[in-house]
TrEMBL record:
Keywords: Hydrolase, Metal-binding, Zinc. This is Amidohydrolase. The lineage of its organism: Bacteria, Pseudomonadati, Pseudomonadota, Gammaproteobacteria, Oceanospirillales. InterPro entries: Amidohydro-rel (IPR006680), Metal-dep_hydrolase_composite (IPR011059), Metal_Hydrolase (IPR032466), MQNX/HUTI_composite_N (IPR054418), MTA/SAH_deaminase (IPR050287). Residues 73-426 form the Amidohydrolase-related domain.
């Protein structure tokens, strides 16, 4: 960019509110990497043209170009595994042993009425957008309240949402459900698919929490129904050692083997975690073209293992990145993905690259769209796709000078650099806060309503941090007193 371009008027959100925008950013993140001297034309909620800046400006003399010096225009990030209705619990799970869903998430979600469901989803949507995620795949809620509350939160915030409906028909263990109950669930599932199939922001999905809580017939039917509707079927699989062993005891099959045996794997399937996988199970994922949501922060915070994401990619398995509702900070997720592979696999094998930086950008954008069943709709800055994108400030010390922008985005970039978040061509957030609704008022409502969470029958194994510190200090004081007594005795 020239000095005259850098002298362009200071960017303000009012300049980005037109339905038609001819944007001239410093850089554009395209599939082949970050490119300069590019222009992006947005109209009707979609990218209309992407190409040489001078050419596009001359082709559209009726438009006033918006110069964006020091800004990177990049695709919005895609969270391929989220729990939007767990945001009211957040740090309740910190320091807890695995399978927290039994002790914390099931009782918490079951306690949510429609208002709390909406508040939780809206809070999670705001966090996601602030973190650079323009799409989140929701794995489904155990609340009995109307799921429309979640969709309403997506509409109000502008978050694109793949909305899962849980189809569990068992309480756990091997067996078969009542055929009438299963038929009723599948009838609701068909209604869910029909209701959201043409929504501008919400796409439907069917889900089973984990394979052991659905009958074989339900696993097969829900996956087949998803394939027929052209949407994804979601489930958690091979995440915790306990679940793998329960499946082996009950069925003599590991969870992924179980899904394959009942015909639930395939291009429509998105399995979350897949951290404890054997070579044979990796082959099953590859051969069935099943996608994986890789959740590196979840592995760090409460998992038993790290998914071999690089090996999956090398085998041709489709992989997207997911937060699992841990923290909705997109750039920190990229860093966690690369770091987890480096610590779990790269150090032992001498792999100093661990994806070369670009791999994690790919899985968070175009690869994530593919895994989420949204390929051809989002994930790239390309003509015809929905205009879901970010404007990221490049003029920060951490990214100056720039020698390798993809690596810098993975290791240096911060949520604080995100100036603007767009979905369907509309400006949703400016410097971290919504423009069309009061984000801080939402926080006040959440603080007031969250007291209801304390009434849920949640069981935590470990105390809160302050109590933990006090106990540790108490132990240290006792040890010090005993040591002093021993010294006096021997003295």
């Amino acid at each position: 960019m020239t000095d005259s371009t850098r002298a362009a008027p200071r960017l303000t959100p009012d300049r980005l509110n037109d339905e038609t925008l001819l944007l001239l950013p410093e850089e554009v993140l395209l599939p082949e990497g970050c490119q300069t001297n590019q222009a992006v034309l947005v109209a009707g909620g979609r990218f209309q043209e992407v190409g040489d800046a001078a050419t596009l400006c001359s082709r559209h003399p009726e438009l006033t170009p918006i110069e964006l010096p020091g800004q990177l225009l990049m695709p919005g990030l895609i969270d391929t595994h989220h729990h939007l209705t767990q945001s009211l619990g957040k740090s309740l799970v910190f320091g807890e042993p695995s399978e927290i869903f039994k002790r914390i998430w099931i009782p918490l979600e079951a306690s949510l009425d429609e208002e709390l469901l909406h508040l939780s989803a809206k809070l999670a949507a705001l966090e996601a957008l602030r973190g650079g995620f323009t799409t989140a795949v929701d794995a489904g809620t155990r609340s009995a309240a109307d799921m429309t509350a979640i969709a309403r939160a997506a509409e109000e915030t502008g978050l694109r949402c793949v909305l899962g409906m849980i189809c569990n028909d068992l309480g756990g263990g091997a067996g078969d459900s009542d055929p009438e109950a299963r038929a009723a669930i599948l009838q609701r599932a068909e209604g869910h698919l029909a209701r959201w199939q043409s929504h501008p922001l919400v796409s439907p999905s069917l889900a089973v929490s984990i394979p052991e809580v659905a009958s074989d017939a339900m696993l097969h039917a829900a996956s087949a129904l998803s394939a027929e509707a052209g949407v994804i079927f979601q489930t958690h699989v091979n995440e915790h050692l306990q679940a793998v062993e329960r499946s082996l005891v009950a069925r003599r099959q590991r969870p992924l083997e179980h899904l394959h045996a009942v015909g639930a794997l395939g291009p429509q399937a998105l399995v979350a975690h897949a951290t404890l996988v054997t070579p044979d199970e990796l082959n099953l994922l590859r051969d069935t073209d099943t996608a994986v949501a890789f959740n590196p922060v979840a592995s760090s915070w409460k998992g038993n293992a790290v998914a071999p994401a690089l090996q999956m990619a090398a085998l041709g398995i489709r992989v997207g990145l997911g937060t699992d509702g841990t923290r909705s900070d997109g750039f920190r997720l990229l860093d966690a993905a690369e770091t987890s592979q480096r610590l779990a696999f790269g150090l032992a094998s001498g792999d100093s690259s661990c994806g070369g930086g670009w791999r994690w950008l790919e899985q968070a954008t175009r690869g994530g769209a593919d895994a989420a069943g949204l390929k051809g709709l989002v994930g790239e800055i390309a003509p015809g796709l929905a205009a879901d994108f970010l404007l990221v400030d490049l003029e920060v010390p951490e990214m100056t000078p720039s020698w390798d922008r993809p690596w810098e985005l993975v290791r240096y970039a911060s949520r604080d650099q995100i100036n603007a978040v767009f979905t369907n061509g509309r400006l949703r957030l400016w410097q971290g806060w919504p423009l069309e609704w009061d984000g801080r008022a939402l926080l006040r409502r959440v603080r007031e309503a969250a007291a209801a969470v304390r009434e849920a029958p949640i069981y935590r194994v470990h105390p809160e941090a302050s109590e933990h510190r006090a106990r540790s200090r108490g132990k240290a004081m006792i040890a010090e007193a005993l040591d002093s007594a021993r010294r006096q005795h021997h003295g």
